[in-house]
Amino acid sequence: MTSENIIRAAEHEAVESDMKFRHGCIIYDKHGIVIAAGHNRRLTYNGRARFHPFHRIMVKSVHAEIAALIRAAAPWHCGFRDMKIYVHRLGGGNSKPCDGCFSVMLHMGIRPQNIDWSGKDRIEESQYGRVA
After folding, report:
1. What's the pLDDT at 77?
2. Which of 117, 121, 120 is nearest to 131 (CA)?
3. Residue 74's pLDDT is what?
4. How is the chain split into domains, by residue range?
């Protein structure tokens, strides 16, 4: 897939979001093959926010990056070292991953230079350098 196709795939995923700011995320390999996609969404259980067992806080939503990583985790037990990730905000605007999501991606083995996100008018550069 070309970078344009990755962006379109992320936009298509963001459309599925039920949040005010709709984000889509695509995880793909070095050949451009999409491994998983996710979007931010409300996380409820019987109409109420769910309790996060590890952090002991109420979780009201799941970020697009985490949703995609959860979908991709099962088939990729070998890790995400060579995977790339792109996050897109529908309608423009910055979609830079939060510090928490960035940490999870690094912990999962995704290299910092393989993390990219949308900006207002163009794909921005990662704080670690341009992502190809």
Report:
1. 54
2. 117
3. 66
4. 3-99+110-117
pTM score of the predicted model:
0.78
**C-alpha separations of 27 from 38, 56, 77, 116 in Å:** 9, 28, 15, 10
Residues 6+ positions from 42 with CB-CB distance below 8 Å: 18, 19, 60, 61
The structure tokens listed for 103 are: 């940490």
Question: What's the full length of the chain, in residues?
Answer: 132
CB atoms under 10 Å from CB of 7, counted, come to: 18
Task: Write down the CATH number for the domain with range 3-99+110-117.
Answer: 3.40.140.10
Give the C-alpha separation, 125 to 132, whole Å.
10
In angstroms, the CA 87 to CA 14 distance is 9
Report the DSSP pairing between strands 34-39 and 44-45. Answer: unpaired
What is the pLDDT, as a whole number, of residue 124?
45
**pLDDT tens, position by position, 35-94:** 999 999 987 655 555 555 555 555 678 899 999 998 887 665 567 888 999 999 998 888
